[in-house]
């Protein structure tokens, strides 16, 4: 580590306040501080990170990620790469297999980092899978800034973006017709289900194709030492440029904010509307109050002795496992949770981050991260449904569980108000909100108040630990200050 003291902004430097220390707030603050802006971050919780936190609640030394856990979009993020988080201790680790989707016959559809290796395992669908993904994966370096930025702007590579974007407008259920094998259709549905939308909706292919393309380009990586390593590295960049972070500061009224030339809000639109009240332009306030929330997450962290005894051998080597069954079952489950009904067999995601990062385990006890898609604000108990899903594809797993912790939708919201109702995506990914963010505007980060910007996952490009929503808002704020983002 260098002994050089942090560079402090000049006494006459412009000032910024960032409310919220999630990955977007921290990325925005780091960019502002790097550009010479005197930047302070205010965080309501006692620990920073938002969805990128890690703890040891079940067993000392056993590391479970609070929310965001597997990071293909973060590894591929232009802003995180530019901030050189590796200089501040962030190490990405890749599993042998990115994702497995077990089927009822004991086999599994398998997602490898390589497009060719994945296609080779899909039999009759190999050529179609290559045709869909390979062109965009080959050009991801050029494509990533356009894909991970606001849609309502002139792209840097319009033809590339058009080639990528045309399939994304389709409902995931329609795009699934491209495939003929049950394995390929189930694998695609499991990835598309990350959008928390009915797979019959327009644009429900967008998030799934984004995850697949970024994942093939960069891998479904985890952060060594837990997702908090992403948070710690962003905070180190910020502090290295003289920025400050204050925890335990809950902002409920704009009049209690310290004076600043620009203010960025890593908050959901409802919180922004409450803080600024009548100061917001009426159209902005109305849009923020209309902002729709999506289904919730019900999470069960497990301590499993010896790991999960999957029937499908590939699942034993996969960092992520999707438990959704065949294509039609996933379609039914995602429609149910959007309609407010708890499915009997919910879609369940399983994270086995320890396979890529053994530092998370304690001896032969391993952290297994699971959550089910449930209706918004669900107040029931989905623990048995999740464990039943595990037992369906890994008989005997209950006998290996030596500890567990449940996080209900209300618990997510209590720990992070951006996750109201357990909506960990910070908003339903409907067509208007996916394209426009929190409100219709050429600048999706602008609130209509000069110098005040929204930078949460409610703004493009949406959820993930990639920091790109923060980067978009920071760019708008720097433009307002008459500054340019640093290059390099």
From TrEMBL:
<dbReference type="InterPro" id="IPR036188">
    <property type="entry name" value="FAD/NAD-bd_sf"/>
</dbReference>
<dbReference type="Pfam" id="PF13450">
    <property type="entry name" value="NAD_binding_8"/>
</dbReference>
<protein>
    <submittedName>
        <fullName>Dehydrogenase</fullName>
    </submittedName>
</protein>
